[in-house]
Write a structure and sequence with these properties.
The chain has about 100 residues and is mainly α. The chain is built from 1 helix and no strands.
Length: about 100
C-alpha cells in the first residue's frame, strides 16, 4: 500500500514538474512575444511621429498658400476698385461732355 502511494506521489510530482516546465516555457514565449510587440509599438509610434511631422509641414504650406492667395485677392480687389473708379470717372466725364455739347 505504501509502495502504491509512493508511486502515485512520484507520478504526481513528475506531472507537477512537467507542468512547471511547460508554464516556464509559456512564460518565456510570452516574454518573447511581449518584446516583439513592444518593438512593433515603437516602430508604429515612430511612424506616427513622422506622419504628424509631415502633417505639420503640409499645414504650414497650406497656411502660407492661403495667406498668399488672400494677398493676391486683396490686390485684385484693389485693382478692380481702381478700374471701376476710372470707368465711373470716365462715364461721368463723358456724360458731362455730352451735356455740354448738346
Amino acid at each position: 500500500r505504501l509502495k502504491q502511494e509512493l508511486e502515485e506521489e512520484k507520478q504526481s510530482s513528475a506531472m507537477v514538474v512537467q507542468q512547471n516546465e511547460q508554464l516556464g516555457s509559456e512564460i518565456v514565449n510570452t516574454d518573447v512575444e511581449r518584446e516583439k510587440l513592444q518593438e512593433e509599438i515603437k516602430q508604429v509610434m515612430t511612424a506616427l511621429e513622422q506622419v504628424a511631422a509631415n502633417l505639420d509641414e503640409k499645414t504650414e504650406e497650406v497656411e502660407t498658400r492661403i495667406k498668399e492667395n488672400k494677398q493676391i485677392l486683396a490686390e485684385m480687389d484693389a485693382k478692380t476698385h481702381e478700374a471701376e473708379k476710372a470707368r465711373t470717372g470716365g462715364e461721368q466725364w463723358k456724360s458731362k461732355y455730352t451735356l455740354q455739347t448738346n
